[in-house]
Design goal:
Blueprint: E1 38-42, E2 48-52, H1 76-125, H2 128-132
Length: 154
Amino acid sequence: MAHLERRPAPVELHHPEPLAPYVPTAASVELYGEREAVVWVPDAYGRMVPMPKHLAPPPMVRPEPRDLTPLPLLDPIAQRFVGAGIGGGVLSAGVGYGVGEIISAAAGFGSGAAMWIALIVLALRMPARTITGGASGSTVNIRKAVIKRSHFHG
């Protein structure tokens, strides 16, 4: 059974070597004109490492200085919008009130005028003798009497 026994493979851990500053080897000879420009940049761990200048990230652009003057409490454009809204509401309320007053006055005038027109038409249609008190023309009085007598025979 010893040949069926499985053993896990050993796990290899990666331990990065610490970076040493760029030091040319003693065997190589570099002329000043052949040497590439080297810049020192921070790596992921915060250490400064050498890097050829053409591979280095672009330098960070310095931001513009901020304007620290105090700003108004409310934005002027927002103030204009609020003013326009309030002014528009007041204008609408005033127009609505005025139109309501005109309509109610017209309705009152219409009903009052209709009453006066009805009175004038009735006055014109009445016979002239009722207005003058019956002084002219002939008067006929008709009197009708109905007499009914009940008899009880009991």
